[in-house]
Amino acid sequence: MRKKIVAGNWKMNLDKNQALALTNDLVDTLGDLPEHQRVMVCPPSIHLSSVVEVASGSKGLEVGGQNMHQAGSGAYTGEISGAMLKSYGVNSVLLGHSERRAYFHEDNSLLREKVDAALAMGIEVIYCFGEILEERENETHFDVVSSQLKEALFHLEASQWNGVVLAYEPVWAIGTGRTASPEQAQEMHAHIRSVLTDTYGTECADGVSILYGGSVKPDNAKEIFSQPDVDGGLIGGASLKTEDFMAIVAAMS
Ligand code: 13P
Q1: CB 88 within 8 A of CB 52
Q2: Which CATH number, 3.20.20.70, 3.40.190.10, 3.10.490.10, 3.40.50.720, labels domain 4-250?
Q3: What is the Cα–Cα distance from 224 to 215, expressed in whole angstroms?
Q4: Bridge partners of 92?
Q5: Nearest alpha carbon, ligand 1 atom 2
Q6: Domains of the chain: which residue ranges?
Q7: Active site annotation includes 155
Q8: What is the pLDDT along the chain (253 residues), one digit of tens a residue?
């Protein structure tokens, strides 16, 4: 059975003390998780080492990276590799976040290389994708999302999908306070699962967790998460406050 996951993407927020205070609070608050649930935070890479250390005091809190380079090592100033993440006990990484696509020019073919590099290191990929407002308005959103999936991920073998989580994040809903309605989220998640089914079959498609991201808050999480193809959320702003993040974790069933 696929897992329900709530992951916090801290983006470029929080200094060292704030990051440690938030992690400590989460460790103190997070009780035992049921077998089918996962909770993760993705801090800026400079905090990974200390956040991993604090999180190791909890049973359930996982730590992921926000990005990694596709090369194993080399002259890539400012970048971090999969081997570095692994060496700090970081076993998951966000790839393809819309902010990286927009500001750092990451496209599907580069992301394909990053996906391969992560999986080769045994790092789980949380692959982020989603349409911009214009694409939804001109009704190309289903095609855009299909291409984002196919071009970066559909070279994988079916067996590799147990190392992949999908995070559908419509760009128009990120940080805007504007959320996809539960029906819009379900409609797209069902589309994503059917695209997966067409290539990989039902068993593989049913095993992949598909998270929704984009202005998930304590007051809308339950309704969004109750949709049959929504397996949790990738949370930005609301992951920076213990109370809000934990309320969203509690909305997972
Ligand atoms: P917000 O929850 O702040 O809209 O951000 C969503 C996001 O980009 C998570 O990766």
Answers
A1: yes
A2: 3.20.20.70
A3: 11
A4: 124
A5: 236
A6: 4-250
A7: no
A8: 899 999 999 999 999 999 999 999 999 999 899 999 999 999 999 999 999 999 998 889 999 999 999 999 999 999 999 999 999 999 999 999 999 999 999 999 999 999 999 999 999 999 999 999 999 999 999 999 999 999 999 999 999 999 999 999 999 999 888 889 999 999 999 999 999 999 999 999 999 999 999 999 999 999 999 999 999 999 999 999 999 999 999 999 8
